[in-house]
Amino acid sequence: MAKWDFWIDRGGTFTDLVARMPDGSLKAHKLLSENPENYRDAAIQGIRDLMGIAKDAPIPADQISAVKMGTTVATNALLERKGDRTLLLTTRGFRDALEIGYQARPNIFDLNIIKPELLYEQVTEVDERVLADGTVETPLDETGTRTALQAAFDAGIRAVAIVFMHGYRYTAHEIRAGEIADEIGFTQVSISHKVSPLMKLVGRGDTTVVDAYLSPILRRYVDQVATELGTDGSDCRLMFMQSSGGLTAAELFQGKDAILSGPAGGVVGMVETGRMSGFEKLIGFDMGGTSTDVAHFNGEFERAFETEVAGVRMRAPMMRIHTVAAGGGSILHYDGSRFRVGPDSAGANPGPACYRRGGPLAVSDANVMLGKLNPDHFPQVFGPNGNEPLDADVVREKFTAMANDIGDGKAPEDVAEGFIRIAVENMANAIKKISVQRGYDVQGYALNCFGGAGGQHACLIADTLGMKTVYIHPFAGVLSAYGRGLADIRSHRQQAVEETLVPEIESTLQDIAASLSKDSINELTSQGVSVHETTTY
């Protein structure tokens, strides 16, 4: 019997769903991500809505083949510094290595340097040291390690990141420290040579700390979704989108791979739908409620393997996506002399003023004011009870009041138009950053426009950049969700190789590549992919 498939994008403002129904047809659905008066989790409520199930009734998991999700849970936890309490366990003498970092100054003329808040709560040094050639200079002090870990555990910390010097290559000390942490009862043990098996203490250490900090938050959310779906004992597969653009089983989803879980689905959707229509050179323009994500495609997916997000360095494969704080919910500011859009967002609750929850003026309100958003064409899901249309009257009142404050004779429509122009310039500059500044001429590209607010600004963006083709898919409003259904299951492996580059090492490299490929194929086959369906890159 045919079953349901659900592809879900849980964004900061809206949660989008695309369902493939048992008869093979597709249906889209959109909900506010936060609506505590009406539901606990928008993704689960969306499944109930599409299947026609009552609010508190159990979901029949036996009627669902797969649920494929992307979530901003880990991203938001990192941005807001709301991950789990984390201990950093490192080699004696290197407690400050991650805080010092690479001593890079993003703005060399900045006299007031504000360093990002560290993710780990405590750092503990233990006696151990392996030299770069593998010589054990100081054996691991197991008694001291156990004492240090027990003290952190007694203080209520349950996540530990274990990062030792040269641990990526000589792993015995890290493995033993991890075993001790497991024996004590730590629920999250992130070991650097498993998280990022590459040289350089700082990049490896930062990635391991991120994994320890975010994985428990992610695990709780995954468990919550699995419980609500009732996947235990059923054939329903729960999968999540990784930052690299590939899907993975829920139980394999890690914090370090979840940072771009949401927008990565949009890139996959942008590329696959563009290809279906004959476009091979694409600029992805994904304007949602909280932010705008832009991406470049010229025949192959672009990925970065070392990035910085929210002031945190990490080494994990990620889609190359540039994000700016200009979405439909970006708040409009007038400080007495100039207009400013964002970076703060009204989010889903209270949302823009037109949402009937007492929110501030936002980009969406400017489009309502200009008539680009017609309340008659929107579902009636706003207001305290989630059953009212957009409120155009309060938008006019607020823009009229702002025009009076400015006092230069501008009409409310002129004020709204000014804010829109600023938002468009911000988004056009983001596209230039990933294209023109890297030597690509965007005039030969198609602008694949998607996201809930994308269509309102696509032509303005194209005009600003001199682009002549705008592509809008029928599922453009929920393309990040649709992209989950078009994505492949992927597995990535990395390994450091410290050898002189001479012809004789070719066989060694082939052996390493074969070993990594075997590990990846085993991971894929464990998720139901047959061996003949796998492709190695």
In short:
By secondary structure, the chain is of the alpha/beta class. It has helices spanning 42-51, 73-79, 97-100, 142-154, 172-184, 192-195, 201-229, 261-276, 363-369, 392-406, 412-434, 458-465, 479-486, 506-525, and strands spanning 4-10, 14-20, 26-32, 64-71, 86-91, 122-126, 129-130, 136-138, 159-163, 188-191, 237-241, 247-249, 281-287, 292-298, 303-304, 307-309, 312-314, 318-319, 322-324, 330-334, 339-345, 446-450, 469-471. It has a 6-stranded mixed sheet with strand order 3-2-1-4-11-12. The chain has a 5-stranded mixed sheet with strand order 19-14-13-22-23, sandwiched between helices.
What does this structure look like?
- This protein has helices at residues 42-51, 73-79, 97-100, 142-154, 172-184, 192-195, 201-229, 261-276, 363-369, 392-406, 412-434, 458-465, 479-486, 506-525; strands at residues 4-10, 14-20, 26-32, 64-71, 86-91, 122-126, 129-130, 136-138, 159-163, 188-191, 237-241, 247-249, 281-287, 292-298, 303-304, 307-309, 312-314, 318-319, 322-324, 330-334, 339-345, 446-450, 469-471.
- By secondary structure, it is of the alpha/beta class.
- The chain is built from 14 helices and 23 strands.
- The longest helix is centred in the middle third of the chain and has 29 residues, at 201-229.
- The strands form 7 sheets. The chain has a 6-stranded mixed beta sheet. The protein has a 5-stranded mixed beta sheet with strand order 19-14-13-22-23, with helices on both faces.
- Helix 4 (142-154) crosses helix 5 (172-184), helix 8 (261-276) packs across helix 13 and helix 9 (363-369) crosses helix 10 (392-406).
- Strand 22, helix 12 (458-465) and strand 23 (469-471) form a beta-alpha-beta unit.
